[in-house]
Amino acid sequence: MIRTGFSKVVVPSSGRLFSSNATPSQIVNKHLWRTAGYINGEFTNGSATEFFDVHNPANGSVIAKLPRMGAKDAETAAQASYDAWQVWKNTTVKERSKVLMKMANLMTHYQEDLATIITLEAGKPLAEARGEVMYAQSFYELYSEEAKRINGDVLPQSVHGRRMLAIRQPVGPAALITPWNFPSAMITRKVGPALAAGCSVAIKPAEETPMSALALCVIAEEAGLPAGIMNCLTVARSEVVDVGTAMCHSPLFRKLSFTGSTPVGKWLMRECATTVKRISLELGGNAPFIVFDDADIETSVTALVNSKFRNAGQTCISSNRVLVQEGVYDAFAAALAARVTAMQCGDGLTEGSTCGPLINDAAVAKVGRHVEDCVAKGATVLAGGAAPADLNEAGGCFFTPTVMANVTEEMLPCIEETFGPIAPLLKFKTEDEALRIANSTRMGLASYLCTRDLARSWRVSEALEFGMVGVNEGAISADTTPFGGIKESGIGREGGPYGLEEYLEVKYICMGGITSV
Ligand code: SIN
After folding, report:
1. What is the position in ligand 1's atom list of the atom closest to the CA of 318?
2. Alpha carbon of 315 to ligand 1 centroid (Å)
3. pTM for the full model?
4. Cβ < 6 Å from ligand 1: which residues?
């Protein structure tokens, strides 16, 4: 069944909706703001009788109250995904492609509202949020096209009288667990290939940022995606283990894709063993950013700023350790400190803000701990260095963009991912030393190097034990490219044709009796 209208909100007898759940005035297309989960084509509270608050991290205000869905709702979503998949898996690639293209076009149409929703719930500056919407849109557009390239193979005949084929089929209903740092793009990067392959999905967005996920459900419905193909659970921290467990243990979900921390990824991997699910995990990073003596300073500073300070340093591919060769150390540090000092902390909806808030108080405390640890062990602060008291006393979760010199391997940013706007600078002498420090982590997501030496760019790219390498470039993410890590940074790839394979199974068919010999 293809529907184009909007579903009404279903209030179960045990549930109630909040009249205080007013749509923020900045949102023009009010129907994009939904305050209930989405199962089988209905916005619903499911089995929830209690609600949780969604906050704006720029000022602490409550922007929505959503039903606290639980394990029972995860099972309902699994059944809905499974039932709807029985029809969806038999659609033609052209039918799926058309719906995905409509979803992409609607994202472009609603770009401003979708960006505002991202800024309200995740805090990033509006210009960055607009960029995220179009990055997110690009996955729907790409996979609308990639759907048409799900080919099979006619294999070489190795036995007389038989013909051998390999066909690709959808894995099946997929449980998608997504993070708060890219509330829109981390959903479409999974939903796009899943729908293109012929899978259905149930999304569990982060409790901090469910509003973008729900807006994407509205868009899917408006584009004519059949009921049950895309479901969304609104889950508070108190229920997250129950819901995660239910998703992993349900035999109806054939696949789980997760973006988030390494400890949670390891737990999900263990739980998925109960049903031997296909898994994709995009986990934590601890990216090195290496500046060699032969690098162009301005290019390197721009690359680092793009990689380190995008979303206030809250990306899995943010540079975490900046290794600078001794010959350019002082010049690079001075140029970087000047650029970072010019950044402006503030509400993402306020004109001129270039660094939004962190997601919550715990994130601010962690960044503060990293700075204090470095300073206590001998680092020097060249820019920033503290949380802005005025903004945080008003309810915000900000940390001033920071640059520190004389950082060493014993200090916290070299040991764990900071996930905040601080650039710790370490000095090195030789290429071998830089590689040793860069690879001395159990993580392996992104890495960066700056050099004008072609041979070195090849050599070091090959030697870096990471899934992605940026050479003289800090903004490496794109719809067409393989995003993912090695070691404890994850399993699988998202983006491009690589991302589609994650939602496909290869089936071998052997046809006998074709000829007598
Ligand atoms: C992430 O932080 O996991 C995603 C970043 C990106 O796609 O660029």
Report:
1. 2
2. 5
3. 0.95
4. 181-182, 259, 282, 315-317, 477, 483
Residue 514: which residues within 8 A CB-CB, separation 6 or more? 161, 162, 163
Low-confidence ranges of the chain (pLDDT < 50): 1-19
Comparing C-alpha atoms, which of 219, 273, 233 is closest to residue 249? 273
Q: How far is the CA of 453 from the centre of ligand 1 (A)?
A: 28
Atom of ligand 1 nearest to the CA of 477: 8
Give every CB contact of residue 68 below 8 A, 6+ residues apart in sequence. Answer: 48, 50, 51, 52, 234, 235, 236, 238, 239
Atom of ligand 1 nearest to the CA of 189: 7
pLDDT digits (tens, 9 = 90+) for 413-450: 999 999 999 999 999 999 999 999 999 999 999 999 99
d(CA 28, CA 99): 24
DSSP code, position 134: H
Task: Report d(CA 262, CA 508) in Å as an integer.
Answer: 34
SS3 assignment, position 319: strand
> What's the pLDDT tens digit per position in 272-320?
999 999 999 999 999 999 999 999 999 999 999 999 999 999 999 999 9
What's the gap in Å between 365 CA and the centre of ligand 1?
22
Q: Whose CA is nearest to atom 6 of ligand 1?
A: 477
pLDDT at 20: 57
